[in-house]
Amino acid sequence: MTDPTTPELLAAAASVALTGRSIIERTDRTSFRDVCKTLDALHEHLAVAGGSLLVLADRLDCRADVALLISEGQARLAAFRACAGMEGRA
What we know:
By secondary structure, the chain is an all-alpha fold.
């Protein structure tokens, strides 16, 4: 098996994002089962997209920069989640 080409990796990541959006739009939000199935599908799709993008980062020799940016983004998300629900309380 040969490694995927750069265009193939980009297409995989883009396709996953577009498919994920379509799945979300079709989800019956009143159905617990449907929401769970959607979350399971998105979990798998995001793993594929993330893996494809990290392979590209390796190919472009910028994995360390990407890892730093991911870490910074994750820290911002954690801070946002920690503040969620505070609603202006001192």
